[in-house]
Amino acid sequence: MKKIIVTGGAGFIGSNFVHYVINNHPGVHVTVLDKLTYAGNADNLKGLPNNRYELVVGDISDAELVNKLVSDTDAVVHYAAESHNDNSLEDPFPFVQTNILGTYTLLEACRKYGVRYHHVSTDEVYGDLPLREDLPGNGEGEGEKFTAETPYNPSSPYSSTKAGSDLLVKAWVRSFGLQATISNCSNNYGPYQHIEKFIPRQITNVLSGIRPKLYGEGKNVRDWIHTNDHSSAVWAILTKGRIGETYLIGADGEEDNKTVIELILELMCQPKYAYDHVTDRAGHDLRYAIDSTKLREELGWKPEFTDFKSGLADTIKWYQENEDWWKAEKAQVEAFYANKGQ
Ligand code: NAD
Ligand code: DAU
C-alpha cells in the first residue's frame, strides 16, 4: 500500500491516524480529503513533512472530486463524519448528508476503481447495554459487552446514520464484491478532540473558570480508548484484516461519567464536587462496552495506553499548553449548551 486517502483526516481521530501512518510507515503517501467543517482544522496536520501528505479541501459527497482522487489511490480509510450526538439532536440533516450520502459516494467510487476501502464506525450502532448494577451478579457473566454479532439498535440521529452507513458497506461487499472492512470503536480521548465533546469540554471549562457540566446523574458508562490505540488498530485491520469482516476496537476502559468528571477535577487540583448536574441528553445511551477479542486474537493487536488516569493527565496538559487551538471557539460552544440547559 503506497497511496491512501484518509477522509476526515483534519478531524480529531482522522488526524491522529495520519500522524500514525506518516510516523510509522515511511513508504506511504497520504491524501487527506476534508471539508474543514467546524470540527476540522488544518493545524492538526502541522509539522508533518509536506512530501508525505497532501490536504485536499473538499466534500466526500462531491462525486466528481471523489472519483478523481479514488482513481489514483490504493485504499480509502473513511473517517469523515458529522460526529456529535448533541448536534444531531438539534439538526439531523448534515448527519444524513455526510454520513449516509457521503459514504455512498465513496463506496461507488471504490467500486468503480476496485479500490480497498476501510470504514471507520462506532460502537453506538449497537445501541446501549444495561448498567452493570442493573444486571444479575453485577454483569460479570457472559454477554454483557458488544461483539460483531450484536444486533444493530442505534438510538440517536448520529448513531442511526452511522449504522446506515455500515449497512451500505455490508451491501456493497455482498452485492458488488467491494474489498472492504469495518471497525466499530468505543469512545476516544486524547489531544485535538473538539471541545464540544465530554472530556475536552470539562477540561476547558476548568481552564476558563466555568464549572464542569454532568448530564443527569452521571451514571452513564463509556468505554474509553486512547486515540493512538484506535489508529494502530485501524492500521492492523487495513493491512491484515479479512475482507468483509467487522472488527470491534476497545481497550477495556469502562468508566462512568461521574467518575471521569471527578478525576478531571482531581487532576486539575480542584475540589472533587465542583461541578453542576445539568439537563440529561434525550435518549441518552446508558452503557457501551466492547469485546475486542476478535481483533486481538486474529490480528495480534493490543492497546498501549491502558492507564486511563495518566492518559487523561497528558490530555489535560495538552489543552493547558494549546489554548490557542481551542480558546476562540469556547464561548460559542458554551452558548450552544446553555441554550439547551446543559
Ligand atoms: P470529528 O468531528 O473530530 O472530525 C470529523 C472530520 O470530518 C472533520 O475534520 C470534518 O471537517 C470532516 N468532515 C465532516 N463532514 C465532511 C464532509 N462532508 N466531507 C469531508 N470532510 C468532512 O470526528 P472524530 O471524533 O474524529 O470521528 C472521526 C470518525 O470516527 C467518525 O466517523 C466517527 O463516527 C468515528 N468514531 C468516533 C469516535 C469518537 O470517540 N470520537 C469513536 C468511534 C468512532
Ligand atoms: O462511542 C463512540 C462515540 O463516542 C462516537 O461515535 C462519537 O462520535 C463520540 O462523540 C462519542 O459519543 P458520546 O456521545 O459517547 O460522547 P460525548 O463526548 O458527547 O459524551 C460522553 C458522555 O458524557 C455521554 O454519556 C454524555 C456525557 N456528557 C457529555 C457532555 C458533552 C456530559 O455528561 N456532559 C457534557 O458536557
From TrEMBL:
Keywords: Lyase, NAD. One of its GO terms (molecular function) is dTDP-glucose 4,6-dehydratase activity. GO terms for biological process: nucleotide-sugar metabolic process. Residues 5-314 form the NAD(P)-binding domain. InterPro entries: dTDP_Gluc_deHydtase (IPR005888), NAD(P)-bd_dom (IPR016040), NAD(P)-bd_dom_sf (IPR036291). It catalyses: dTDP-alpha-D-glucose = dTDP-4-dehydro-6-deoxy-alpha-D-glucose + H2O. Coiled coil: none annotated. Belongs to the NAD(P)-dependent epimerase/dehydratase family. dTDP-glucose dehydratase subfamily. This is dTDP-glucose 4,6-dehydratase. The gene is rfbB.
